[in-house]
Design brief:
CATH architecture of the largest domain: 3-Layer(aba) Sandwich
Strand content: 5-15%
Radius of gyration: 26 Å
CATH superfamily of the largest domain: Crotonobetainyl-coa:carnitine coa-transferase, domain 1
Length: about 400
């Protein structure tokens, strides 16, 4: 049990695993956050001003709020230590941390890691048991290996998702921070767990890598695979020119939007006609077969659009559900936060933050029977645990004072 866990909190299946995180923003840090949810101890090494991610929630167009919501979400459970890694003494402290670690997680550019002698090649001989988890924007080879890669540019834009995710009458979508980083972090987390399993068998560490570009390509893999197989270029359409009116967005009388997803038309077409109380449509000569529905897709989309605008969303949710149709409301973030289905499935977890009081955080999306997650601890202040961690490394008061005097560490 680490000193971040209470006596009443189960230690977690990863209790005893220590992660040293030298990373910024979301991709690599969130892989460590998921490990911390299952009991791993995470020591986050930050520059004196803190991880720049601490400022994201205050950066337009992010929603204004009194709570630093990005940081309380992804910084939970961690201990923060400040180090100036440009100084030799700072790197010496870091190496002492790594010596006691199981996992080193980073997303610094390869050239920066090499310059600081923190690349995998520098560390693997000294720490042969170490799992070196490296997140990148564009991979470990090629012309763009050192190019800065963000969620928006490397995951969404480079993979083609940004192009494909908008209708023909809209601009490419402006993705918001974290939409690609968080799922990419799950890939890095999975790689780390594979490496830990391998180490159980061999005693040896290894390097785990994953890139935003590769994760974006995996998310967009059906369309990319079509291109690899010589398929026709993907044709984007508008709502009213959809080639399949049964897989389309519609808007209700009260302005709510939902996506109809009746892919298996042989099953769902009759059900849909009865759900919207137009049973005569089942055998309508314009729509009676899949081919006819494709030929008259725009006409059918207009008909359905008019029909759905005659009632509020609550009515259509009841009617479509009663006929066992596949559809999904398109809620706002505020509506998602109040979704009873989310709450029933522990998508949100409680935390008592000393700065903000009781609140809920979005939970990581993996659950194990008989291996519960730890109760989350509040995200740390910048350098909150610097002195504590240094004392664990056997630094004395005088040594800590000297590190502070020369600027290797900063006051919390």
């Amino acid at each position: 049990m680490t000193n971040r866990e209470s006596e009443t909190t189960p230690p977690g299946i990863l209790s005893g695993i220590r992660v040293v995180e030298v990373a910024t923003y979301i991709f690599a840090p969130v892989a460590a956050t998921v490990m911390s949810d299952f009991g791993a101890e995470v020591i986050k090494v930050e520059p004196h001003g803190g991880d720049a991610y601490r400022q994201l929630a205050a950066t337009p167009p992010m929603p204004a709020a009194e709570v630093n919501y990005c940081w309380v979400l992804d910084g939970r459970n961690k201990r923060s230590i400040t180090l100036d890694l440009k100084k030799t003494q700072g790197r010496d402290v870091l190496l002492k941390l790594i010596e006691r670690a199981d996992v080193f997680a980073t997303n610094y550019k390869p050239s920066v890691l090499a310059r600081m002698e923190l690349s995998y090649e520098h560390l693997k001989a000294r720490f042969p048991w170490l799992i070196y988890a490296q997140a990148t924007g564009y991979g470990e080879a090629g012309d763009d290996v050192d190019k800065p890669g963000y969620d928006m540019t490397a995951y969404w834009a480079r993979s083609g998702l940004m192009h494909s995710a908008a209708n023909a009458d809209g601009e490419p979508c402006l993705s918001l921070p974290g939409m690609g980083d968080h799922p990419s972090a799950m890939a890095l987390f999975g790689g780390i767990m594979l490496a830990l399993y391998r180490r159980e068998k061999t005693g040896l560490g290894t390097r785990v890598t994953s890139s935003l570009m590769a994760n974006g390509a995996w998310a967009n893999s059906c369309l990319i695979q079509a291109a690899l197989c010589g398929g026709e270029p993907f044709q984007k359409r508008t709502r009213m020119t959809a080639i399949n009116a049964l897989v389309n967005h519609y808007v209700t009388r009260d302005g709510k939007r939902f996506i109809l997803c009746s892919i298996d038309a042989s099953r769902y077409w009759p059900r849909l006609c009865h759900a919207i109380d137009l049973p005569a449509l089942v055998d309508d000569k314009r729509f009676a077969t899949p081919d006819l529905r494709r030929q008259h897709a725009s006409e059918l989309a207009a008909l359905l659009d008019h029909r759905f605008r005659e009632q509020d969303m609550a009515h259509w949710q009841t009617a479509l559900t009663a006929h066992d149709l596949v559809f999904g409301p398109v809620p706002t973030p505020d509506e998602v936060a109040a979704d009873p289905q989310m709450h029933a499935n522990d998508v949100f977890i409680d935390v008592d933050d000393p700065r903000h009081g009781p609140m809920q955080l979005v939970n990581s999306p993996i659950f194990l029977d008989d291996a519960p997650k730890r109760s989350p601890a509040a995200a740390p202040a910048i350098g909150q645990h610097t002195r504590e961690v240094l004392m664990e490394l056997a630094y004395g008061d005088a040594e800590i004072a000297e590190l502070e005097r020369v600027g290797v560490i900063a006051r919390a």
